[in-house]
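Weekly modeling sync, notes
Attendees: S.R. (lead), two postdocs, one rotation student

Agenda item 3: backlog of single-chain predictions. S.R. asked that every request posted to the team notebook include the full sequence so nobody has to chase files. The rotation student volunteered to paste the first one in as an example of the format we agreed on. Action items at the bottom.

Example entry:
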Amino acid sequence: MTRDGVFEAPGRINLIGEHTDYNDGFVLPIALSHSVRVRAHRRDDGVLRMASRQVGGTAELSVADLRPGVVTGWAAYVAGVVWALREAGHPIGGFDLLVDGTVPPGAGLSSSAALESATALAVTELSGIALDRRELARIAQRAENEFVGVPCGIMDQSASLLAWERHALLLDTRTLAVEHIPFDPVAAGLALLVVDTKAPHRLVDGEYAARRRDCHRAAELLGVAALRDLVGEPRDLPEKLVPRVRHVVGENARVLEVADLLRAGRVHEVGPLLTASHESLRDDFEVTVPELDVAVEALLHEGALGARMTGGGFGGCVVALVEESAADACAAAVRSAFAGHGYTKPESWTATAAGGARRVVEPPG
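Predicted structure, as returned to the notebook:
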């Protein structure tokens, strides 16, 4: 059993399936080439020492003292994984952990899940603990829910740990059953354009938790285990909850329809479902912000086949399916629209589906 290693895990873009994961529903993310890397060294003194190349300072404490609230900021996502593993009965000891990464924080690309996943893989492998990656995803989710205090679902951690290159990951968040569906838009003459709107993406704030409470309350009133079990229009609910339920039911159906199209190789037909998802997130779930809506409008006006916000909302990124030859013009259209509104200049790039978390074999020297 080695004492040292370098591990990395990717961020993710969710093609479709927003706010369905904590409703036991379906999601369809891909992993990104952007990743978080953790350089780990196993210690014998029970001390957890954490540092980041992006953020100054070092956090250090005994693993025996880990509990929710004692670590804050980026280090809480790292410490939370060690805490969650120990809470689950796994004998994780001390570590030196140095974090580096290319996933933009606050962009809705799951930098937190990438950090958790890389940490989980590092500390378990170097401790000689073999866990199924679905179990690692549950551990990472628990770290974010209970240690950090973000009530996220399990999609992000699952995408970071389970994704395949050139495939989308169809995940049933109730059973954790997965299907890897071929997704290679470039082969079809298309591009998946990602636009980082630079609108801050902050899920620790209360709105995300409020949406989750709305969904759980609606399920309780409707007498179902989760909104995933509901079919058709909701009835006999407080007026505020009706659009929330309508979004979740519709979004689950859209995920499964996109999956069917991808299986059939009909990627060109996915676009309208992406746009319908955005409209539902804007009007029924109310999680978009002006930057997201302006970006989507500009992309569609420039000829994108479909566009939607991706992630939890309240900022972050937009994803669009575009003709490969039109990617630059679509990105320029968003920049022009943002300049006209006085928004921060956005960043754009084309994404391909990457593989999940792995140990990195570094060249000698």
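Discussion: group reviewed the output briefly. Residues 348 and 364 are 35 Å apart (CA to CA).
Action items: rotation student to repeat for the remaining queue; S.R. to check formatting next week.
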